Amino acid sequence: MAQQNITIKVNGTDQAAEIEQRLLLVHFIRENLALTGTHIGCDTTHCGACTLILDGKAVKSCTVFAVQADGKEVLTIEGMTTNGELHPLQEGFMEEHGLQCGFCTPGMIMSSYALLQENKNPTEAEIRWGISGNLCRCTGYVNIVKAVQYAAQKA
Amino acid sequence: MRQIDAALHVRGESQYVDDVPPPEGLLQAAVFGSPLAHGRINSLDLTAARQVEGVLAVLTAADIPGENQIGPIIADEAMLADGEVHYIGQPVAIVVASSRRIARQGVAAITLDCSPLPVIVDPKEAFGRNEIIGVPRTIARGDVDAAWADCDLVLEGSCDLGGQEHVYLETQRSRAIPLEGGRLRIHASTQSPYAGQRMIARILGVPFNRIEIDVQRLGGAFGGKEDQATQWACVAALSAWHTGRPVEIVLSRAEDMRMTGKRHPYRSDFKIGLSAEGRILAYQVAHYQNAGAGADLSPAVLERTLLHSTGSYAIPNVRLFGVSCRTNLPPNTAFRGFGGPQGMFVMECAIARAAEAMGKPVAEIQRLNLLGAGDHFPYGQPTGSDYARTTWDQAARSYDLPAIESRIAEHNATHFETKRGVAVMPVCFGISFTTTYMNQASALLHVYSDGSVGLSTGGVEMGQGLHTNLAGIAASALGIAATRIRVESTNTTRIANMSPSAASSTTLLNGNAVLLAANQILDRLKSLAAAELDLPGPADVSIADEQVLVGGEPAGLSWTELVGRAFKARTGLSAHGFYATPEIHYDKATEQGSPFAYHVYGAAIIEVTLDCLRGTYTIDSVKITHDLGRSLNERVDLGQIEGGLAQGLGWVSLEDLQYGPDGRLLSPALATYKVPDAHFMPDDIQTNFIPIADDTNAASNPGPYGSKAVGEPPLMYGIGLFFALRRAMRAFRPDLDLPFVSPLTPERVLMALYPEGHVAFPPIASAVEAAHER
Ligand code: FES
Ligand code: FES
User: Which residues of chain A are in CATH 3.10.20.30 domains?
Assistant: First the structure.
């Protein structure tokens, strides 16, 4: 199978690798880089568990080839802390109990991050639309919305 | 107290089975599932699969050294199909390879030659052909046959309730690691480590003590990993056994949806008789449970259906019949509520039908018939509580139900294209495993000499907040900070013979076991403290805020000092606690007993707005009054209520499992199977609780520190959406006799509103005129 050399800046560090062209970005992140905070929930772009930030935009990495990220910047959940300090969104999900099993949490945080980049002061309806591509089967979303509001207020 | 794993979750550092760094030489397994829903296997061709480069082993039933059997209640479920296949996706062969992709290539290269046999997907058809599992059950009270004559109104009807896919966000997975001496350690995503251990031992033909199951956490489960996780733990274990290498299996979402069982679809027939004022005098129901191809937990689920078939109502004469019907779907299984929701749903359908026929508000009939403190359930257990009425009345009062009613009447009188509806959904849910012996649990508590604590129980953390609760219980009991307590993984070498984490009883059982263990340590430490402080005995000694107190005053001895001294004084700092729920029993021969430690009650008011031209709808609000007892952690409990509610709402509205006549699931992906997202859920969800001082239900509650179970009951609030929608639909089409078919997807709503097709017809024209005239 065709191989290709790629370099992706992941959480601020250049990662060069020779990979198979069909390798999905989520597998590159999880398996090649051992960044397992990005989860896989559906494989088909419906659950959002695999959401990460690619050149500033939230993408579902289960349907992006790693080669499509070549030369670009990726931010994953592991890159959200700075010098050990939690991002306001991470704090919000903790403080507002916006998590139960935690499986959706990294993807939720990354989608919310993209939302807040575009809209610093979203209304509740905008938050609900903004994260409606991410499924959570545990919480009923009440506290997830609160967590995003917490972060918006804090930022 | 925060959720104990929150800091790990938000950093992406919490490890699920396949997040743990892979051991050297880890192989991947994939499963070949039956392409036919029913057939006789003529031949299985594995040659091509074996030739795929990177495939190390292809295993079939013939490779199972022990017994090819994993049925948890009835031995009717082969781990790998042998001779016949009974549902699409039924595991037939395992391919073990160097990567998951190669394993799947191997699976694709397998061919199965099969002669088709007749396929049944409908439970009533199965019943007609005597395809039943276990024995039909009947709970009766009073004399239902005689009672019909006394009724002013007798009505019959039938319901068709859909199943529900769990959609735990983490699909089924397991990793098996061979250890010395032929032992295996399996890291599994299971609610039932002991079931995994038992079944792996069975298929391998080894004693239980050769198999270690370890569970750190689950990415959701909801019942779907109670016994259905066992299959995948067995796949990993058998593969590791044969290859001598670590083997992992992770199902794709499509595999998971196709191969695993779900909430049972039910078809039910009811007959209800009432007095003119609306008192229910007699109720009879027959539940035909779609069990799928194997028993799995179906008989136990059916039992809970029957035990909940009269919902929150007191009915003097009842006959509740249920039967598990064998069809060619994957074996259906536990799902939050465990059969209770179906029983209660059908009862509500009967009441709705009666109210509609009598021209009375549904809520009036519901309220009139609610259980009181002196009433008995049909299985003989007294309610001992007035909570059905207390919760209903508090909901109606605190959320001003009359005002909601008049707002809705006003809207419906002035709008044509949209109609609004409201329903009240009372919940009464029995707490305990109905199989009495399962109500037992153990805890193992270590206090290390530095004062930190390691706590193991048989309970599994699956997002429900168990570990947070357990740490809180241990911390309160020992008088120390919760941060000192590490709740360890759930492991069969530390805790033997554990019950599954299910039946809303995990905190009750394991929390009490923790208390029993903690109290042993506490007694030893107090005696030691008394000796150290030259007191005559430990009676006045207590520990709080990490300090030893004597007569409530600090004695200048800290927790860490005390523990250090205890260690040097050769005091045992480990303890094992064992708990069994007292006083519960059930006699299946008479179908009478007291199977539940207590019942949890509540009521929810659900409002919906229906777009009558499109069939789409918006849930405006859900307002709940819930009986929480003395909450161990209100945030955790509220999260359970909101999450359970979301699943209940989804079950009756969006979540549509469609099967073809050939037994094929037509909605096998999240593209076609919709679950509630943040936008679907109402902005307005309110919850209030019954004041603890009024707790008439407290005496019988064995929950740690007076806490009550909260895992399952809130799911059933969601059922109210069905009836709120029905009301809105009837406001638009009062002329129609609407069927009781769930889920009410927008598509189904639209078809029901326009049975004549989409041409304009008089009712609409006149309604438009009427609306315009106002
Ligand atoms: S795994 Fe990518 S969206 Fe679900
Ligand atoms: S917390 Fe479990 S899926 Fe969201």
Answer: 3-79
How close, in Å, is residue B14 to chain A by CA atoms?
Answer: 8
Residue range B394-437, pLDDT digits in tens: 999 999 999 999 999 999 999 999 999 999 999 999 999 988 89
Which CATH class, in words, describes the domain spanning A88-154?
A: mainly alpha
Q: Which CA distances in Å does A53 have to A28, A71, A110, B13, B346?
A: 14, 14, 7, 18, 47
Q: What is the pLDDT of residues B460-516, one digit of tens each?
A: 999 999 999 999 999 999 999 999 999 999 999 999 999 999 988 999 999 999 999
CATH 1.10.150.120 domain extents, chain A = 88-154
User: How many percent of chain A have pLDDT more than 90?
Assistant: 97
Pairing outcome for strands B184-188 and B211-215: parallel
Among candidates A41, A95, A132 on the partner chain, residue whose Cβ is nearest the Cβ of B253? A41
CATH number for the segment(s) A3-79: 3.10.20.30
CATH no. for B23-118+166-259: 3.30.365.10
Instruction: Check if the beta carbon of residue B709 is closer than 8 Å to that of residue B504.
Output: yes
Angle of helix A105-118 versus helix A88-95 axis, rounded to 10:
130
Verify whether ligand 2 is closer than 6 Å to residue A104 (CB atom).
yes
**B440-580 has CATH 3.40.30.10 classification:** no
> For residue B363, how many other CB atoms are within 10 A of its CB?
20
Is ipTM over 0.90? yes
A101·B6 Cβ contact <8 A: no
Contacts of A143 in chain B (CB under 8 A): 639, 642
A10-23 mean pLDDT? 97
Contact B21 A105 (CB under 8 A): no
Fold of B266-433+590-753: Aldehyde Oxidoreductase; domain 4 (3.30.365)
